Amino acid sequence: MSETTNKWIGQNTIRPDGAPKVTGSAAFAADTNMPGMIWGSVLRSPHAHARIKSIDTSKAEAHPGVKAVVTAADIVDFPVDTPFPLGIQDMRWMCRNVMAREKALFHGHPVAAVAATSEAIAAEACKLIEVDYEVLPHAIEIDDALAPDAPILHDFIEFEGKPSNIAGTLEHTKGDIEAGFAEADVIIERDFTTRPVHQGYIEPHACLVSVAADGKATIWSSSQGQFMVRAMTGLLTGIPQSDIRAIPAEIGGGFGGKTIVYLEPLATILSKKSGRPVKMVMTREEVMRASGPTSGSKSTIKIGAKKDGTITAAEGIYWLQAGGLPGSPIRGAVGCALAPYDIPNGRTFGYDVVSNRSKVAAYRAPGAPIGAFGIECVLDEIAEELGMDPLDLRLKNAAKEGTQAVHGPTYPLMGYVESLEAAKAHDHYKAPLGPNQGRGVASGFWFNAGGESSAQVNITEDGNVVVTTGHPDIGGSRAGIANICAELLGIDYRRVSVLIGDTATIGFSNLTGGSRVLFASSIVVTESTNNVIGTLCALAAKIWDIDPEAVIWEDGEARPAGANAGQFPPLTLEELAARANESGGPIGAGAQINTTGAEGGFGTHICDVEVDPELGTVQVLRYTVLQDVGRAVHPSYVEGQMQGGAVQAIGWALNEEYIYNKNGHVDNPGFLDYRMPVASDMPMIDTHIIEIPNPKHPQGVRGVGEVPLVPGLAAVRNAIHDAVGVRFNDLPMSPPVVLDALDMAEAAE
Amino acid sequence: MYQFNYQKAGSQDDAVSALSSAEDGKFLAGGMTLIPTLKQRLAQPSDLVDLSGINDMVGIQDGGDSITIGAMTRHVDVANSDVVGSKIPALQHLASHIGDPQVRNRGTIGGSIANNDPAADYPAAVLALNATVITNKREFAADDFFDGMFATNLEEDELITAIRFPVPEKAGYAKFPNPASRYALVGVMVAQTGGETRVSVTGAGQDGVFRASDIESALSGNWSAEAAKGVKMSDDGLNSDIHASAEYRAHLISVMASRAVDAAG
Predict the structure, then answer these.
(1) Taking CA A366 as the corner, what is the angle to CA A364 and CA A367, rounded to the nearest 5 degrees?
(2) Fewer Cβ close by (within 10 Å): the C or N end of chain B?
(3) pLDDT digits (tens, 9 = 90+) for A531-571
(4) % of chain A exceeding 90 in pLDDT
(5) CA angle A13, A15, A21 (to 5 degrees)
(6) From CA B25, how far away is CA B4, in angstroms rounded?
(7) Do B181 and A734 touch (CB under 8 A)?
């Protein structure tokens, strides 16, 4: 880590959410209750694809204990021919995702919801709703959806002049791709597939909504953005945003999956109709069937290089599953795929493919791991073909300051080369390997993001500090902000409380996502804190009767700037807070900014595996994540992000997948059948933090949380190849798959 | 969960009479299967008769050439038992790898065997070690106790009180855990007791735990990992599901048997 004189930035201070979480007192979304509260339950489609001809809710409404029923007729319709973007979402698709409208598009798609005096009555009443379905043929996999005779999900979607399940495309190009391949000495082209995986947050979606007699709604829910909850719920229910107060609960994991609403609009309408507070909590099965996993994909990757390793051209074509409604993360796939490299001639192209699956949601660097997987696998093969060390091949082609990326931007100062050099120099890269063991490397990129953030910094009457920001904390932002505010004020971090405001108590703040929260919120916190320091200095100047310019703030106290300013004993924060009314009154400042200056992040992973040739199992023996984080404001949280991303990548690579049966139903909608790794499956993930401070940020922050998922799929796969000589191009590399491939390789010899 | 009457029995006789007088009663041991089943409303018993207060069904007794484990003894207590560790280390190893710590802190050997989950670990130990299942009415030889998936030859009001394991010359257990649930995708126990070789397989069979007679024959003549591995198991009657095909399970049986032999020494 780079040397600084910081006292708190860079310290592993005690996490403000630690004690409540460890002792079980943290209030998650399902922990809030109200007097008179009733329970909502969702009726879900039993078919993967069906036209809804009619819905009769009369029997459910007459059922004792039932207080309200909602169907698509109660939800604001956004016509399919008029785009209505909200962030990266489109309300045309959101209104059809929270409740099936013309058609049920996947097994588990909500069709109606009931609120009743108990969960059991609500569930029973759902069964009394009569839905007349016209069952339609379904398409689950990409190839099914692209087949000439595929069932078309949406007749309003056309591609190349014909009804199609291709809902959109995105292309990046640079240079002359054909000329580039013509210059190459070696060209390798391969096809890859990745499977859809769920974010796997432990806390299911949950909310409590109370619409009072005056029509004002209060929403308690677990999300990655209370302002997103307010906006989407307002749009889907027709309630003005000023009449909705969205209060964020402590969040039990999100990883991108809580950046859209599922239950909140339903509970709001049920509460409005019934006049009672309505609570809704998904079961794990509902989470797995009906909340968004990330896309499954297929891709074709072609890379050409000269004998010295110089890449002359690279191309990646990607098809990503969107689920039943448009919106797969093709931007992340085609934007991040080639981002680590200085490539003269490049092209990436992505297709957004709808099929009868639950609509995908963001998952940690959405699309980027899919983009990087095939590229990093083909680079491994090129390195082998050329007899080059795979890190040397990457160093030869590494993007650096001034490189123009295939996806457009010209990079400023950044630390990709440093991550490769650190990997090469790392003990791990030189450690000996035993039989059936292998080592793989891969790199990855994520855009990171700025955007809207708000903060308020208030000095309490006793001279301590309360900071309020508008972003749910899913990765340590409260701890990071406490460090930064304490650093600026020159006081102990324990005197700074950091809270997450609700939509009524803090200004608009965009989603927690894109690795943007500490980047953006520390900009507004810095501006607010500096304004507070200005107020404190002005107060001291007034007390001393000198010019405010002659006061400086150091180590938590106001001091005369120098001998010429006069001889006064310093005034501490506590003393000034106590005397606030001598000039201007309460001390506090806020800032609301659409932040800019976010710069991308790069990382390189080293993975060692051992393959059991009798069982086909793959054990990760050692794993090192090396990443440029800009500035590690709270290093143990940064390490936790790097470790967590790597673990999610290992799970995606080795075992996780959604398994559909022939009826188009998910066969493994729970943790007894969905193969997510647990702690005992993993080695300790080693981290190597590189700090190339972002010059456009006051503390040098880049964003940390998403990059570490990106390289992992290929790092594991390349390690397996090194161990056993077999190249797997399809995920997951589960034991039966690996054993089959080993047997085939043996038979071929 | 539907409503039910809860009764806590103070003795074996209390438990049996409470169950007999219930309309549709069930014994509650550790509850590791029954409680989730109730929570999902997959069962609707009229009464639960809780066995946790019956003191003479708990504990591990060293009988010299056998060990008797009370039916209400928790997995964690078997895993931590010096007696089991010194006399049948394979059984200790098996108990210490059931589920996760929460399950081992609640689950009981009697509950596991009475439930006879086709992927549970203990049924493999009972069968391979040729244990005797002791009930309030009689004693079962291991081969006579299990009766297919989730089924045993227990009568309605019959209560397992203890399991008696003869001390083997050698025994080993090797499990391939399901990567999601951690139940045995295939678990194999091998044992030599009084000159007899027995091999049991859990997790793989459509009818639950079974003895792998081909591997028993191979090991009887040649107690070695290679002999076990050399047996090509048929996939007839084996499970095929989203986690593994019958062919893969058949392959795993031979490999896990060889590893169990290695573990047995």
Answers:
(1) 135
(2) C
(3) 999 999 999 999 999 999 999 999 999 999 988 888 999 99
(4) 98
(5) 160
(6) 9
(7) no
Treating both helix axes as pointing N-terminal to C-terminal, what angle do A735-748 and B246-264 enclose, rounded to 10 degrees?
Answer: 90
- Tell me, yes or no, if A41 comes closer than 8 A to chain B by beta carbon: no
Q: What is the interface pTM, i.e. ipTM, of the complex? A: 0.94
Q: Where in chain A is the domain with CATH 3.30.365.10?
A: 297-448+599-748, 450-595
Question: Residue A471: what residue type?
Answer: H
A675 CB near a chain B CB, below 8 Å? yes
**Domain segments of chain B: what residues?**
5-50, 59-166, 170-264
Cβ proximity of A141 and A193 under 8 Å:
no
Least Cα separation, residue B75 to chain A (angstroms): 19
With contact defined as beta carbons under 8 Å apart, do A573 and A580 qualify? no
Whether A358 and A289 have beta carbons less than 8 Å apart is answered as yes
Closest C-alpha to B160, from B197, B142, B191, B133: B133
How far off is chain B from A140, nearest CA to CA, in Å? 17
Residue in the block written with tokens 């902000």: A481
Residues of A in contact with B179 (CB under 8 A): 655, 675, 677, 681, 734-735
Q: For residues A124 and A114, what is the distance between their CA atoms, to the nearest angstrom?
A: 9
CB pairs under 8 A between A and B: 37
Domain A32-136+202-253+258-290, architecture per CATH:
Alpha-Beta Complex (3.90)
Q: How confident is the model at residue A1 (pLDDT cuts 50, 70, 90)?
A: very low
Q: Do A672 and B251 touch (CB under 8 A)?
A: no
Contact A299, A191 (CB under 8 A): yes
Closest approach of A497 to chain B, Cα-based (Å): 36
Q: What's the Rg (C-alpha) of chain A?
A: 27
Q: Do B245 and A736 touch (CB under 8 A)?
A: yes
Instruction: Select from 3.40.630.20, 2.60.120.10, 3.30.365.10, 1.10.10.10 the CATH code of A450-595.
Output: 3.30.365.10
- Interior angle at CA B79, CA B148 and CA B122, nearest 5: 5
Cβ contact B132:B145 at 8 Å: no
- What CATH code is assigned to B170-264? 3.30.390.50
Q: Which fold has domain A297-448+599-748?
A: Aldehyde Oxidoreductase; domain 4 (3.30.365)
What residue has token string 């490049």? A346
Starting at the edge strand found earlier in the chain, the sheet holding A685-690 runs A437-446, A601-611, A618-628, A685-690
Domain B59-166 matches domain B170-264 at the CATH topology level: no
Q: Convert the pLDDT of each residue in A580-589 to its tens digit.
A: 988 789 999 9
Q: Which two tokens stand for residue A570?
A: 């310093």
Tell me where in chain A the CATH 3.90.1170.50 domain(s) lie: 32-136+202-253+258-290
Taking the C-alpha atoms of residue B199 and residue B189, their distance in angstroms, rounded to an integer, is 6
With CA atoms as reference, report the closest residue to B109 among B89, B90, B125. B125
Give the three-state DSSP class for B39.
helix
CATH among 3.30.930.10, 3.40.720.10, 3.30.70.1150, 3.30.43.10 for B5-50: 3.30.43.10
Q: Is A744 on the interface with B (CB under 8 A)?
A: no
Neighbours of B55 (CB within 10 A): 11
Condensed to tens digits (0 to 9), the pLDDT of residues A477-518 reads 999 999 999 999 999 999 999 999 999 999 999 999 999 999
Residues 91-150 of B with CB under 8 A from A: none
Classify A61 as helix, strand or coil.
Answer: helix
Q: What is the pLDDT of residue A559?
A: 97
Only one residue has tokens 């009229």, namely B46
- All residues of chain B having their beta carbon less than 8 Å from the beta carbon of residue A283 are none
CATH number of B59-166: 3.30.465.10
| Nearest C-alpha neighbor of A254 from the set A458, A82, A80, A472 | A472
